[in-house]
Amino acid sequence: MASGGGSKIWSLMSLGSSVGAAVAARKALEASWKTAARRKPPANPADPDVDVWEAVTWALATGAVASLARMLAQRRAAEYYTRSTGHLPPPLQKDGQ
């Protein structure tokens, strides 16, 4: 497989896994928030009517959960890519590999 083609395939896999992970993480986080806080998460944390600590908590939680989900999804995608092609995706290859 040519390097350019592999890079395009990896780009699509990376994007797809990131989007899927973000959607799943957001749904899980919203459900968890509803259970823990007994109300919906803030629709717009920047709204001055939203309590500042609720806004900060929501921002921290969404940032952390989304980043973690994206990283885990991309690792799984990289494992699949490596099993399928016999090598790491081009952007993950170390110099000299």
Description:
This is DUF4235 domain-containing protein. By secondary structure, this protein is mainly α. The protein has one domain. The model has no long low-confidence stretch (mean pLDDT 88).
Order of helices and strands: HH
Structural domains: how many = 1
Span between termini: 16 Å
Q: What share of residues are in beta strands? A: under 5%
Q: Quaternary status of these chains? A: single chain
Largest sheet: none
User: Structural class of the secondary structure composition?
Assistant: mainly alpha
Helix content estimate: over 70%
The strand count comes to: 0
How confident is the prediction overall: mean pLDDT? 88
Q: Please mark out the parts with pLDDT under 50 across 5 or more consecutive residues, or reply none.
A: none
- The number of distinct helices, counting runs of at least 4 residues, comes to 2
